[in-house]
Automatic annotation (TrEMBL):
Single Gene Ontology BP annotation: respiratory electron transport chain
Pfam families: Ni_hydr_CYTB
Subcellular location, record wording: Cell membrane
Gene3D superfamilies hit by this protein: Transmembrane di-heme cytochromes, Chain C
UniProt domain Cytochrome b561 bacterial/Ni-hydrogenase: residue ranges: 9-178
Protein name as annotated: Cytochrome B561
Top-level lineage group: Bacteria
């Protein structure tokens, strides 16, 4: 089943969700580690190159994901969820998408503040828009850092909520995102 239906996520939505989840956690780990590398490390240039290349691909992937979300109807919320749970789910997902977009855009703004394009592997380049605000590299760098940490905090709550639905409430919340 490629498309979502009223009760389950389809293959496309599941691939978007799980591939994004793995890539986001990977980018966080690499980002966290790479900022402390020193000039003499063999990863000093390679790690940011990978972080930025994969980050730009994730930006494209996320835009495609959002487009998909808006053109295909998503499954309905489970009727066993209280109104408060349904609201928390909506707000939680909105926060995940919004913070993710801020991280992706701030990452672009850090990397292009000096006017140089971002080289995405050896495949293509994403042009710089130049320095749009004063101290762009530092400002975007702080935003990138704190939103990345905030995302991880919300993801943790998101995971705990999914596990609670699965193991305690024993409802279909997690199953319909997997099977
Ligand atoms: C979900 C996606 C991403 C996550 C979770 C993420 C996470 C991180 C983290 C945790 C750091 C270390 C921050 C610090 O301690 O200062 C970092 C640094 C960095 N990220 Fe990302 N990042 C993402 C996407 C991107 C993208 C799309 C780009 C650019 C195209 C990018 C460019 C950078 C750069 C240039 C740094 C180094 C900043 C500095 O030297 O202070 N990131 N990222
Ligand atoms: C970086 C990690 C993750 C991010 C950014 C993330 C983000 C999201 C987002 C934005 C949605 C809403 C999808 C929609 O548009 O309907 C969603 C749904 C979901 N996620 Fe995650 N997720 C992550 C990891 C996980 C993990 C590890 C689990 C399981 C333990 C999980 C379980 C679920 C479930 C069950 C749903 C469907 C909820 C529903 O039916 O409304 N997610 N996730």
């Amino acid at each position: 089943m490629v498309l979502d239906n009223e009760t389950k996520f389809g293959t496309v939505s599941k691939v978007f969700h799980w591939l994004s989840a793995i890539v986001i956690l990977g980018l966080f780990a690499v980002g966290f580690w790479m900022v402390d590398l020193n000039y003499y490390s063999e990863w000093y240039r390679t790690a940011p190159y990978w972080h930025k290349s994969i980050g730009i691909l994730l930006l494209g992937f996320t835009l495609a994901r959002l487009l998909w979300k808006f053109i295909t109807p998503s499954p309905k919320t489970l009727t066993t969820h209280t109104k408060l749970t349904q609201l928390a789910t909506k707000l939680g997902h909105l926060a995940l998408y919004s913070i993710l977009l801020v991280i992706l855009i701030s990452g672009y703004l850090i990397s292009t503040a000096d006017g140089r394009a971002i080289e995405v592997f050896t495949w293509f380049e994403v042009m710089s828009l130049g320095e749009l605000i004063a101290n762009q590299e530092d400002v975007a760098g702080s935003i990138h850092k704190y939103t990345a940490y905030s995302l991880m905090a919300i993801v943790l709550i998101h995971i705990l909520a999914a596990l609670k639905h699965h193991f305690i409430d024993k409802d279909a919340t997690l199953r319909r995102m997997i099977k």
